[in-house]
């Protein structure tokens, strides 16, 4: 007999996170659905991984607290190693944040639409997830967030799935308005005009998370960084899995952080293509908002994204379509690819439009 009925009620009640589709290895698709970087990581980063494979690293445990990565991150971003926590992806940092700050029944509040994993992680924790709408022009409804009595606030900046970035002055004001940690999920900050790291000095309740999956071309390794006040970082370290970042990932992260300039050409190429792709989509009658991330949210003229998603998929182009909530159902979230991939998407769109 199954023991599924013995699972905690909150686990039985939840659906589980639905990741974007990952095609089978070797399957030939234009993959513009999960916001990976279309370019490989710089050679200096790949060489650091190969060097680990050749040495004793794989049969030994990695450094438990990823100290060398934290030192490299501190050098790269002008912080102290005690302010840095390293995660097995930034999702791992989100898990640590929920474990640390959200007791059963406590409230997690996020301006939405946003990253759907937040609700899943809150459910696992037995917390209550409350979404607050974005204000006009992608602003933060600070009063509404504070009035929701949060134990933790989660803000994606730049936001997903639209790509706008709320004002940093508003993030500051929110940090002052709530007696709770405010997490700035900066998974897409490498493509943005600015970021919230400079706010850390003035706001001990601010926590910034970063991902190596988008800007740094290392989604397959699973790496993320958390930046916080040293006392908050110390709490997060207690709930980490003991060896949460493997040796290859630590070597790659250190090389990446010590060679941020080597990423500039990749990032500039994506940012340039973002502008070109947005213009080309608008020319075709789609409504495309300004984006500071490596994706665009494009609203189709006839109000239903699903047939477009399916027709593109039939032509070998994967993009992301969100049937829910309703305000996303007329949109296609398209990751910015290489010029060739973006041209293939545009050609497929033209073919779909032509019927
Ligand atoms: C992709 C993404 C993440 C997860 O990044 P990983 O480092 O791959 O775990 C976190 N937050 C947002 C908003 C994302 O889009």
UniProtKB/TrEMBL annotation:
Assembly behavior: Homodimer.
Matching NCBIfam families: hisC (TIGR01141)
Top-level division of the source organism's lineage: Bacteria
Residues where N6-(pyridoxal phosphate)lysine is found: 214
SUPFAM superfamilies in the cross-refs: PLP-dependent transferases (SSF53383)
Gene responsible for this protein: hisC
Pathway where this protein functions: Amino-acid biosynthesis; L-histidine biosynthesis; L-histidine from 5-phospho-alpha-D-ribose 1-diphosphate: step 7/9
Catalytic class of the enzyme: transferase
Sequence ranges assigned to domain Aminotransferase class I/classII large in this UniProt record: 29-349
EC number(s) stated in the UniProt entry for this protein: 2.6.1.9
CC cofactor: pyridoxal 5'-phosphate
GO molecular function, one term: histidinol-phosphate transaminase activity
Chemical reaction(s) catalysed: L-histidinol phosphate + 2-oxoglutarate = 3-(imidazol-4-yl)-2-oxopropyl phosphate + L-glutamate
The name this protein goes by in its record: Histidinol-phosphate aminotransferase
InterPro entries: Aminotransferase_I/II_large (IPR004839), HisP_aminotrans (IPR005861), NHTrfase_class1_PyrdxlP-BS (IPR004838), PyrdxlP-dep_Trfase (IPR015424), PyrdxlP-dep_Trfase_major (IPR015421), PyrdxlP-dep_Trfase_small (IPR015422)
Similarity comment: Belongs to the class-II pyridoxal-phosphate-dependent aminotransferase family. Histidinol-phosphate aminotransferase subfamily.
Keyword annotations of the record: Amino-acid biosynthesis, Aminotransferase, Histidine biosynthesis, Pyridoxal phosphate, Transferase
